[in-house]
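Protein record

Derive tokens from sequence
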Amino acid sequence: MGLLDNLNSWHSDWSPVRAVVLGLGVTGFSVADTLAELGAKTLVVAEKADAELVDILDVIGVAHLTGEAAAGLPQRVVAFAPNLIVTSPGYKPTSEIILWAAQNNIDVWVDIDLAWRVRDKNERIAQWFTVTGTNGKTTTVQLLTAMLNQAGIKTAAGGNIGVPMLDLIRDPEGFDAIVVELSSFQLHYMGSITPFSSVVLNLADDHLDWHGSFEAYRDAKAKVYENTIQACVYNVMDAATERMVEDADVIEGARAIGFTVGIPARSQVGYVEEILCDRAFLDDRANNAIEIATLHDLNEIGVLTPHLMANVAAATAMARSAGVSAEAIREAIRGFKLDRHRIELVAEANEIRWIDDSKATNPHAADASLASFERVVWIVGGLLKGVDISDLVEKYRDRLAAAIVIGKDRQPVLDAFVSKAPKVLVREIDTEDNSQVMKLAVAVANDLASAGDVVLLAPAAASMDQFKDYADRGGAFAAAVKALIGGFGG
């Protein structure tokens, strides 16, 4: 048994550990700060580093290597002779330093691994609820967090959202539950944890440039179900998620629970007409169901779409696995609001609705948006991350009044329309001035849209080619719409 195998508690002796921390964002800093508090010898390696965080590293006595000196495999890392590397998910498995670690049998963790091992810092040890999927993770995590808190279970959201996990673990008062959003990057590196309940919301091509193949991406997502104690929640409408549950090695007694936007079968949560129902967590689930909420309640959240209905059903199944009452779930739903840039109604004028779904950074997310509206002027494009958009174009060509193509990777999108939807009117926004991209796109959309249409920003691509991030892209869209039509409306 190796050194790290014995380190399963905050109260273990971490002093023999020599850890290299890759990356110095808020998560990387939380890792370095925690390791320093534990007494491990630590070296931070980060090409990009905030000067203020570097100063704090100096104060807490953590060595660091930044800028160009941190690129590749620095000799200082080799000389440091680490027995552990804790990486930011930004480092691909093909990174020189990750390959070197594998060749030298050095364990590679993410912050989740360290957080799991030291979660007993105080006596209030939280149960973990793990959430992953190609799309809908953040909304589902926030919904579940609200449901658990409404029931009096002190809960926080962490992982790929909000506060770094290690900051939650070190909270002096602690939590009863932590809802952990896990990206495929984190899951690729992550070792063994034991969640109370877990869910894969859906699965579609994404991040293939990072994982190398769809199979590798799928296998990373499937890890979320391993060792689950109570409920493995899967998407009835996505057979791949059910197969993951069937293949998972879980704790004896863990149940497979489905969620759907259709009528729920036994051991499922879904919808009967306008009622969200639980047929999983009641004694007579063969013949009865528990009413949770109505579509009117869900309408309070935001634009009601099948995607939103699925996220609510998934969060409900997770909450019910923890014994949360129907009343508490209903109250949480009534008080919940979607994040900005997530199928958000920006304005309505001249019988045209302007919808911002800038958070749709891959084709699967855009699919959920396009499926929600009958006739669309679609603003699409950006960084495609190695994903083919042609199937999406073909699927929705009959709903498209027009398409407006933006972004760096325009040519593959334009080619997809030529081959899969040649009858759709397509306009290309070709400008070197990034500040003008959305103004031009909105102006063209306004010319092309007719009464009853939805102008939908659902780019199916990442944003960093022309914008700071998806929020910047959505903000630019909203500002351009406001400037053009003179105000917001509902």
Remarks:
- The radius of gyration is 24 Å.
- Residues 306-321 form the longest helix (16 residues).
- The chain has three domains: 17-109, 115-334, 344-483.
- The domain at 17-109 is CATH 3.40.50.720 (Rossmann fold).
